[in-house]
Amino acid sequence: MSSAIPGFHELRIYKIEPGRVQNMVERFQGGLSWLFPRHGVNVIGGWCGIIGPENANFVYLMHWRSFEERQAAFTAFAADPDWHRVRKETNAGSEFLEEFEIHLLQPFLSHGLDRALPFDNPDAVHELTIYPGKTGMFGPIRDRMTEYELPQRERMGARTLGAFDALTGPRLPTALSLVEWPNLTAWQQAQVAPVARQALIDRVADEKSRHGRQALGRATQYVLEPVRVDWAPIERTRN
Fold this sequence. Notes:
Mean pLDDT: 91
Low-confidence stretches: none
Order of helices and strands: EHHEEHHEEHEEHHE
Strand content: 25-35%
Shape: globular
Number of strands: 8
C-alpha cells in the first residue's frame, strides 16, 4: 500500500428513485463525461450499488487538489447552460435524485486515486465501507484499518484502493475504505470465512485490553458495480 496523495477526496452517495438508476448511469456516461472534465471535476470512479443499506444507490468519488479548486469547478459547472440542458434531458420529466450525502475525505492510504480508475476487470466489484469511530480514538482507528481491516481483506483476495479519514459527515470521527474484489463470489465467500470472524474477535479483545473499548463502531458497507465512462481530457488549469 502506498502513501497518501496530496489534496483531498469527495465522496457522494446518491439515493435514486427506484427503477431510475439507469437514468443516472446514462447521465454519467453521457453529458457528465465531458461536462465534468470541461470544468476540472476530476472523477476517480462511479458505481451502482448492488448490496447496501438502500437498493438504489449511485456512488462517485472525486479528487481535488485544494478547496479553492473545488469551489471554482463547481461554480463554473453549475452556471453552464449545457449542464442544465443535460439535467433536463436525463431527468426525462421528473427528478430522480431523492437525497444524497457528501463526505470530504483525507486519504492516509491510496493507490492511483488521483485519476480515473481504469475498471479493466469486467467481473470486479468494489467494497466501500464506512466505519464510525469512537471519540478520542483517532490513533487506534487508523491502527485498526492498517493492521487488521485492510490486510485481512487482502489475504482473502481483495486489493486496497484507498483508506480515508472523514473531514465532514453526519458522524465524526469516521474512517472509510475502498477495496476491489476480483468478483462478487470472492466478496461473498470472504463474508462467511471462519478465519475472518475469529480475527475480528481477537482484534476487538486486544483493543479493549489496550484502550478499554473498541476503536470502531458498526460499519455500513456497500458493494458496488463499476460504471465505465469514456472521460474527455480533464482541464485542470486552476490552482
